[in-house]
Each structure stands twice: as C-alpha cells, then as structure tokens.
Design a protein that fits this description.
It contains seven helices and four strands; from the N terminus they run H-E-E-H-H-H-H-E-E-H-H. It is mainly alpha-helical. Among the domains are: about 80 residues; about 60 residues, no CATH class. The longest helix is centred in the N-terminal third of the chain and has 35 residues. The model has no long low-confidence stretch (mean pLDDT about 90). This is Lipase maturation factor 2.
C-alpha cells in the first residue's frame, strides 16, 4: 500500500507541476512547466540533505544486517574470517558512499558546501581515478557558453553556397526538433563530437567530404 501510494503521489505531482492536460479532440497530451526556477532551486535545497540522511540510514541498516550474519556463522575460525571480510567490505562501502556525496550534491551548491570538509578532501584525493561521479551518461553537456557546430555547404558554381541540412543535426533554429528515439542517427551524432576538437581527431570527416565531392550516393 505504501508503494502504491508513493506511485500515486508521484503521478499526481507530475500532473500538477507539469500541467499535463489531455486534449481528447486533438488526441494530444499538452504540458507546461508550472513551477519557476527559484521554486525548483528551493525544492532541491530542501530535499538534498534529507536524501543523504535517508541513504545513510539505509547503508547503516545493511551494514548491521551483514554484521549480524557474521555473528550467525558457526565455528570460531569461520566467524573470524566472515568478520574480517565484513570489516573490509564495510570500510570500502562507507568510503565509497562518503566520496559519492560530493558529486551527488553538485546539483545544489549550498548542500555541497555543508558536507564535512574531510569528505571533500577524500574526494579530491581519488577524483583522478573516477571512482564515483554524478548520475548521467552525458552529465556535463556542451553548449552552456555556446555550442560549436560543423557546417557543410555545397555549391554548383563555386560562388553561391547553400548549407546542407541534416535530418537530426542542429541547423535551422526555426525548425522543430526531430523525434530521434529509438533511431540512433550516427552521422549527425558524430558531427557533434567532430565540432569539439581538431580535424585530426575525426579522420572520417575528411572521407565524408571527399565522398560528397565525388557525388557518392552512399
């Protein structure tokens, strides 16, 4: 019942805060964000540290349960061996959990600043190993300060040039974004990375331009 109630609340909050409305005549689901950036920031500030507390209680419970299982092992030798394994694994787990709090609280800088300074020092010592990180495949996206784009243009006479529009690559700002999923537009996707570095890092791009000049249909 508690789980069903939680899902029900999540659904109600989603409908309310994202203004979901079903238009039966047009058979469309309309949505509009019903909260401000300030309200979202205040909500993050309210829940981030309590979530850390909930996670700490959950981890503590798991460690205590594991310790109890060690005490239930028969035989002094095997009990000592189980306790040694528990101590090593518990120490490693607590350490990983502690340093993971730093990237977890990146989303709310005030909460990040309230963490114990020792946790920040621990994270700084192992950051180069990338042991922990914030959630997301591409958490830090390019384009915050302006996103570079590779532009391909074609001409029949060498004087008037026309931009070659791609189906999924950003181009005409007046055009609506194309629906991608579940298709993976590989060329358009690679052009994003080609714009982030020198041409030597994307040797395939020179081959693409050569095939365009040759008029290869593929």
């Amino acid at each position: 019942l508690l789980e069903l109630s939680t899902y029900g609340l999540l659904l109600c909050w989603t409908v309310h805060y994202f203004g979901l409305e079903l238009d039966w005549d047009r058979k469309l689901l309309d949505s509009k964000v019903a909260f401000t950036y300030h309200e979202f920031t205040m909500w993050l500030r309210t829940v981030t540290l309590p979530l850390v507390g909930v996670a700490s209680l959950s981890l503590s419970w798991e460690i205590l349960v594991a310790m109890y299982r060690c005490a239930c092992v028969r035989g002094c030798f095997w009990k000592l061996w189980a306790t040694l394994q528990w101590a090593i694994m518990a120490t490693a787990t607590v350490g990983l959990f502690a340093i993971s709090l730093v990237p977890f609280t990146y989303i709310e800088h005030e909460s990040n600043g309230k963490l114990w300074p020792g946790i920040h020092r621990m994270f700084g010592a192992v950051e180069r190993f990338q042991v922990v990180n914030s959630y997301g495949l591409f958490r830090r996206m390019t384009g915050v300060g302006g996103r570079p784009e590779v532009i391909l243009e074609g001409s029949y006479d060498g004087h008037s040039w026309t931009e070659i529009e791609f189906m999924y690559k950003p181009g005409n700002v007046s055009a609506a974004p194309a629906v991608v999923a579940p298709h993976q537009p590989r060329l358009d996707w690679q052009l994003w990375f080609a714009a982030l570095g020198p041409h030597q890092s994307s040797p395939w791009f020179s081959a693409l331009v050569l095939r365009l000049l040759q008029g290869q249909p593929d």
